[in-house]
Amino acid sequence: AVYECLRGGLDFTKDDENVTSQPFMRWRDRFLFCAEAIYRSQSETGEIKGHYLSVTAATTEEVLKRAQFARDLGVPIVMHDYITGGFTTNTSLAQYCRDNGLLLHIHRAMRAV
């Protein structure tokens, strides 16, 4: 769906704010799929495209691991559920993003699973 939306004319798409890493959609697989969709649609349209990857997870370490993986894929935007993550995790993620050139979108769904 990400590819179809980006190829069809949208500039950005995003993970659902409640998505973290369910058995039917593991985060690493989702990140790889979305990165492929971004690069393929950019190649075909000549336009800049993006996708907000949700890095929300149970621990600060896991959040930062996911943000690093997104950065390594070249995806410039990550998203995090602020209230679920807590102040310390969000501060750590904000500093990581600032230091590594990532855009950070904060979502406050408060019910990530």
TrEMBL record:
Domain Ribulose bisphosphate carboxylase large subunit C-terminal, first and last residues per copy: 1-112
One MF term in the entry's GO annotations: magnesium ion binding
Pfam hit, one: RuBisCO_large
InterPro entries linked: RuBisCO, RuBisCo_large_chain_AS, RuBisCO_lsu_C, RuBisCO_lsu_C_sf
GO biological process: carbon fixation
Protein name: Ribulose-1,5-bisphosphate carboxylase/oxygenase form I large subunit
Organism: uncultured deep-sea autotrophic bacterium OTI-1
